[in-house]
Write a structure and sequence with these properties.
Elements (H helix, E strand, L loop, with lengths): L9 E4 L2 H6 L6 E6 L24 H11 E10 L5 H11 L2 E9 L5 E2 L3 E2 L1 E9 L12 E3 L14 H11 L5 E4 L6 H8 L3 E6 L2 H12 L8
Parallel strand pairs: 1-10, 2-3, 2-9, 4-8, 9-10
Antiparallel strand pairs: 3-7, 4-7, 5-6
Helix pairs in contact: 2-3, 4-5
């Protein structure tokens, strides 16, 4: 079993299930993550996301998240609205229970079919019985377009920072097992938290690592 210090302030390249298996139990204070949506997404420029067309990772990854998360703490997980049944099954199998739903409203639509898709959403899930946060975070939040230069489904730092501030404390550890471009890590750093990121795709891992190495984030609020 690894020592927590070995994982801190890093974007680790690897399979998050395998990496979390080596982490100590109950060692992180908050998990905030944007996992693959199980939709086989491909961006207009041809980029894709590993394991986005299968759910073999879904149950074991959230089981490991439950193991490494401290008792009475929160998981914030984005999800796909048309795959929510699979996500809920994995969350509940792990032991999490839903305590809130967060919606970020976009001023633009990211896709259009029967409707224009103009929001992002995540569930706030609890392990055991967390205390009420001292910050009364609204469940409808703002969203600013940050571009997708580093990752095809890149999230803006300003969307994650208030969530991290509401559900963790300064100096605590925030984990993102599906780190992508490193947005959660940047937001955690700006909020005065420590972070652990894990990313499977070598190209996105490199982008995230370089982003943090060069100190990017201060102008991304």
């Amino acid at each position: 079993m690894g020592v927590l210090q070995d994982y801190l302030q890093r974007i680790i390249h690897g399979d998050c299930i395998k990496v979390m298996t080596t982490m100590p139990p109950e060692c992180v204070d908050l998990i905030a993550t944007d996992p693959p949506y199980l939709v086989g997404y491909q961006s207009r420029d041809g980029r894709s996301i590993l394991n986005d067309a299968n759910d073999a990772w879904l149950v074991p990854s959230f089981a490991q998240m439950y193991r490494v998360l401290k008792n009475n703490r929160f998981l914030v997980s984005f999800y796909s609205w048309n795959r929510v049944d699979r996500f809920f099954a994995a969350w509940k199998a792990a032991g999490f229970w839903p305590v809130g739903h967060l919606v970020w409203v976009k001023k633009y639509h990211s896709n259009e079919r029967f409707v224009r898709y103009s929001y992002e959403a995540a569930y706030l899930l609890a392990k055991d019985e967390p205390e009420k946060s001292t910050v009364a975070l609204r469940d409808v939040l703002d969203w600013e377009y940050s571009g997708d230069g580093l990752h095809p489904t890149q999230k803006p730092v300003m969307a994650l920072e208030p969530v991290i501030e509401a559900f963790s404390k300064v100096g605590e550890v925030v984990l993102d097992p599906f780190a992508g471009s490193g947005t959660t890590a940047v937001a955690a750093k700006l909020a005065g938290r420590r972070f652990i990121g894990i990313e499977l795709d070598p190209a996105y891992h490199r982008n995230a690592q370089e982003r943090l190495t060069r100190g990017s984030g201060e102008g991304e609020r």
